[in-house]
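re: ur question from yesterday

yeah so i grabbed the chain u mentioned. its 171 aa long if i counted rite. heres the sequnce exactly as i have it in my notes:
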Amino acid sequence: TQAAGGTVVTTGLPVLLSGLDRQFTIDTHGLIEYFTFRRVFGTKTPIEEIDQLPPATLSSIEPSGDRSDDIYWVPSYEPKDWNRGTLVNKLSSLITTILRERMDKSTSYGLLLSGGADSRFVLSLADEYDISAYTLGDWWNREVDTAHQAAAKADAPFSFLRRGENYHRSV
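ran it thru and got these structure tokens back, copy pasting raw so excuse formatting
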């Protein structure tokens, strides 16, 4: 944003807002997005007068204060006409390749296994590795039970890590 002495650049709005002696206008929709998602979508911010740089932008500020932006990449949306089976096979192949590149069969690993699909999917593709599964929770609930069942099906040792009673107050 512009200030009396020139242009101000920062990576954090709180620093910017506390360091400038000027009034700003709150963008209500932007503020709601920020409080909901901890970000504002696009290049907007919760402050009407302040925008973010677009992704993949090189910005230059001349001594005169003139700014030029060079956007070197723009995402493109190119939908594919794939069926579910093709997508599952492609994703399985990609994750299997990643596991082979990052893991060694002579090493033991631990996997934070939730009841969610992502970690269960990784566990199902890592069956040739020595993996122990760990699930963190406040009590043995449905998610822990799902993780336990997935670990049993994958023949992976399972440990339930119960959070202490002060866990939420200390986070």
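noticed a couple things. Residues 127 and 155 are 8 Å apart (CA to CA). also Residues 84-102 form the longest helix (19 residues).
anyway ttyl
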